[in-house]
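Batch job 17 of 40 flagged for manual review because the log was empty.
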Amino acid sequence: MSIVVGILFAIGTYLILSKTFLRIVLGTSIIGHGVNLLILTMGGLKKGSPPLRGLQAFNFTDSLPQALLLTAIVINFATTALFLVLSYRAYKVLGTDDVEQCRGYADE
């Protein structure tokens, strides 16, 4: 699982370093998915018994990383939607999707 997380981080970093807005948005979204997998992997299985009386020892999962994961999914969706709207508006105003050409408009 750590190899998959590393591959997602590498792909996301590669896309963020590109010159088009859409690739940058997709790169941030892919890094967000990599973080979600990392949080889920770090949760793991716990040994022993949960803090409830009368239960015997067995393997169980901690619910805190899963709650954090649900929150991270919602935040990732919201930031992706915001970045998509901002990139669409920049494309409509400037007429280009290239970051280098947008820097030229900022200098004028």
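Reviewer: the log was empty due to a logging misconfiguration, but the result itself is present. The radius of gyration is 20 Å. Unflagging and moving on to job 18.
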